[in-house]
Amino acid sequence: MQEKKIPVIIDTDPGVDDAIAIMIAASSGKLDIKGITPVDGNVKYYHTFPNALRLVEFLKLDCPVAKGAETQLEKPCPTTASCHGKTGLGSVELPEPTTPYHEKRAWDFIYDTARDCGGELEIIAIGPLTNIAKLVLEHPDAKDYVKRIICMGGSTEEGNMTPYAEFNFWVDPAAAKVVFESGIPIVLAGLNVTLKTGISFRFIDQLCERAGASPYAKALKEFVSSYSDTHDNKEGEHASVVHDATAVMYAVDPEGCTTERCHIEIKVDEEQYGRSYPTYDDPSSYNTTVITDLDMRRYEQLYLNMMDYFNSFGE
Ligand code: BDR
Ligand code: CA
Questions:
Q1: pLDDT at 1 (0 to 100)
Q2: Beta strand segments in the chain, E
Q3: Which active-site residues does the annotation give?
Q4: pLDDT of residue 208
Q5: Rounded to two decimals, what is the model's pTM?
Q6: CATH superfamily of domain region 6-314
Q7: Is pLDDT at 2 greater than 80 in this prediction?
Q8: Distance from the CA of 197 to the center of ligand 2, in angstroms?
Q9: Atom of ligand 1 nearest to the CA of 13
C-alpha cells in the first residue's frame, strides 16, 4: 500500500536555498504540498512573491501561491541577504509567471487548509515568520489545527547577523516571538545544525555530473553553483550551507535527525535583537524540538533523489 503523504505548506522567501528546499520537498514523494506562501526576507517582497509563482510554474507544482506579508510585523527591515543575488534566485532566470495567485491571504489560506486537513497540516517555514505570526494573531485557534511548524531560523549557538541572531529571526523578531509563544509545536532547524551540515563542494560536483539535459537539472546545477553561503561542515569539507533544506530533511526523514528538547525565548531587546535563547532547566516549559545533527549520507540521498527526479522530467 502506498504511504500516505504528509500535507504541508511551505512558507518561504525565495531565496536560492529556499528554491533547493522546495525542489527537495517536491521530489521526495513523501509530502503533499498544499500551497506556497511567500514572505519578505532574502530579497524584497516584490521579488519573493513572483519568485514563488515562478518556482511553482517551473517545477510544475500543483498548488496555489497565497500572497503573504510585504513587510514585517512591527518594524520594517531594510536589509536583504546578498548571497541570493539581486532577484533572489542567484544566476537562474525563470520566465515571468502567468499563473494567478490565490484569492486568500497567506494566513487565511493556511488556517483554512489546516482545518481542511483535520489537524494533520505541517508548516515548513523557511523565511522570516511574519506570515505565521499573522496566522496566530488573526486565528487564535490555529494551534488546534496546525500539527507543527518545522522552522529554519535562529540558533542555540552563534548567529549570522549578530553574534546572537540568525537572519530569519533577526528580520522579524516580533513575529518569531509570537510564533514561539503560540503553543504550536515547533521543530527548529537553526544555524547550530545548518552550519555543520553544509553540502560539500565535492558532493556538489558529483551531483552536477549526474545532471542530465533537462532544464530542471540545469537550474538545479546553477542554484547549487551560484549560492554563496559557505562554511566548513562537520566532516571538515568546504561546503555550501543550504540552510532551508535541513527543515525539509526533518519533514521527510525525521529518523535521520538527532534532536533535543528545550525552551526557546525570542529576545527583542537591542543587544540580543532576534536571538533564540535556549534554556533546559524546566522540562514543563519546553516549547521546541531543536535539531542538533543530521545523518549526512541520508541527507545527501535526498539531493541525489532530487536530481534523478528532475532529470526524469525530460527536456
Ligand atoms: C536563512 O536566511 C536566508 O538567507 C536563508 O534562505 C535561510 O532561510 C539562513 O540564515
Ligand atoms: Ca529562506
A1: 64
A2: 6-12, 31-38, 121-125, 146-152, 186-189, 199-200, 230-232, 238-240, 257-266, 276-279, 288-294
A3: 243
A4: 83
A5: 0.97
A6: Ribonucleoside hydrolase-like (3.90.245.10)
A7: no
A8: 16
A9: 6
